[in-house]
Write a structure and sequence with these properties.
Helices cover 28% and strands 29% of the residues. It is of the alpha/beta class.
Length: 144
């Protein structure tokens, strides 16, 4: 399983949308370890998003880029309005932690949940949230 971390130039998670990160670090999960495969500068960061069409185009470009790299999971501190569209292709994981090493340890501990999501999803993956060392599925609040 390949996982993309959306990081800033200093290599930390920043409170910005996945598509606006400075770079993506692509990890491979195998044998209980997450190992860095490569790092890519986010060539889509400065794409025009002024129109709805621009936002969709940017999302499409990022999706194609990450699918070509066989990524399955996206990890970021924030996701934009395209998260529902992105969840048709990847498992989104929203984190509050800034340090990638801490996030890696938590992901490894709960990897079976992500593997189960891959095996059992229907048309759209569920979002996961990582907070205080715990990974959990995001639960939508009922509308009142």
């Amino acid at each position: 399983m390949r996982i993309a971390f959306a990081l800033n130039i200093d290599g930390e998670f920043e409170k910005t949308h996945f598509g606006d990160a400075d770079k993506y670090c692509i990890y491979n999960y195998a044998n209980g370890e997450l190992n860095l495969l490569f790092e890519e500068v986010n060539q889509f960061k400065s794409m025009d998003e002024e129109s709805v069409h621009g936002k969709k185009e940017k999302a499409d470009q990022i999706i194609k880029f990450l699918e070509d790299k066989t990524v399955t999971v996206l990890v970021s501190r924030q996701f934009g309005e395209n998260v529902r569209y992105i969840a048709s292709h990847f498992i989104p994981v929203k984190v509050k932690e800034e340090v990638p090493e801490k996030v890696k340890a938590i992901l490894i501990k709960h990897m079976r949940w992500l593997q189960d999501e891959i095996e059992n999803h229907s048309e759209r993956y569920n979002m996961f949230v990582m907070d205080r060392g715990i990974l959990k599925q995001a639960v939508k609040k009922p509308r009142v």
